[in-house]
């Protein structure tokens, strides 16, 4: 006879580290349905993303409700868990966020941008000490390109009183290598900033757990 899966009891006996991803997710779900255990449902959810835990970020309410046995309550729990993981990652990165460091900036924005299905271009407005004044979403484009003019960027920078700016955008493909358009836009924005005495400090492209920094690669050298 098949031994019933009891993740809650195993958690208490052996600790969280002894449980699989499906078992941990099953504890959040609490109960199964229709003859299937909570662990079975958790496995089905993970299978939707190819078995990857990070794929929870790619699921929406509609995706989860298509799974037999997952109702609105369970779906909301799963989506809340995914959102909490994003916030935990960002809070951890925020403690070491230094705008002089491309790696620090990339880590902070990684979880926010790497799961986006389309390109999202962010503008960071910075003061003379490289402290963040605010961030703005400039555009949400297609998966192929994000188009924005230097004029739009510097109108916002001037209104925000920025002395320095940074650009960030994601590549939904997961490969952060810059396209020809990325390099061209970076060069145009850098040159326009020189005329206005507002310096483009970096343009960071976010991939899947990796990034490309124009500053680190010497693309912003004057």
Description:
With 222 residues, this protein is α+β, with helices and mostly antiparallel strands. It has two domains: 7-90, DNA polymerase, domain 1; 96-213, Cytidine Deaminase, domain 2 (3-Layer(aba) Sandwich). The protein has eight helices and five strands, in the order H-H-H-H-H-H-E-E-H-E-H-E-E. The chain has helices at 7-14, 21-29, 38-47, 61-65, 72-94, 102-113, 150-159, 180-196; strands spanning 120-126, 132-140, 164-170, 199-206, 211-213. A hairpin with a 5-residue loop joins strand 1 and strand 2. Helix 5 packs antiparallel against helix 6. The model has no long low-confidence stretch (mean pLDDT 86).
Instruction: Quickly give the CATH architecture of the largest domain.
Output: 3-Layer(aba) Sandwich
In DSSP terms (H or I, runs of 4 or more residues), the helix count works out at: 8
Tell me how many strands there are.
5
Number of domains: 2
Alpha-carbon Rg, integer: 22 Å
Could you give the order of the helices and strands? HHHHHHEEHEHEE
Topology:
Elements: H1 7-14, H2 21-29, H3 38-47, H4 61-65, H5 72-94, H6 102-113, E1 120-126, E2 132-140, H7 150-159, E3 164-170, H8 180-196, E4 199-206, E5 211-213
Parallel strand pairs: 3-4
Antiparallel strand pairs: 1-2, 1-3, 4-5
């Amino acid at each position: 006879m098949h031994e019933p899966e009891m993740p809650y009891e195993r958690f208490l006996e052996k600790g969280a580290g002894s449980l699989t991803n499906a078992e941990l997710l099953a504890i959040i779900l609490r109960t199964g349905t229709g003859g299937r255990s909570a662990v079975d449902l958790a496995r089905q959810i993970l299978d939707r993303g190819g078995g990857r835990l990070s794929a929870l970020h790619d699921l929406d309410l509609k995706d989860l409700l298509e799974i037999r046995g997952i109702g609105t309550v369970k779906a909301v729990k799963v989506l809340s868990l995914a959102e909490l993981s994003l916030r935990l990652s960002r809070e951890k990165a925020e403690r070491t966020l230094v705008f002089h460091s491309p790696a620090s900036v990339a880590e902070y924005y990684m979880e926010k941008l790497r799961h986006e299905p389309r390109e999202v271009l962010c503008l960071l407005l910075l003061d003379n000490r490289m402290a963040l004044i605010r961030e703005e979403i400039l555009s949400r484009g297609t998966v192929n390109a994000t188009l924005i003019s230097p004029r739009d960027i510097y109108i916002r920078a001037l209104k925000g009183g920025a002395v320095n700016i940074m650009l960030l955008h994601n590549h939904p493909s997961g490969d952060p290598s810059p396209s020809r358009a990325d390099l061209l836009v970076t060069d145009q924005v850098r040159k326009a900033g020189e005329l206005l005495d507002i310096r483009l400090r970096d343009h960071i492209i976010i991939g899947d757990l990796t990034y490309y920094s124009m500053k680190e690669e010497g693309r912003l050298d004057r």
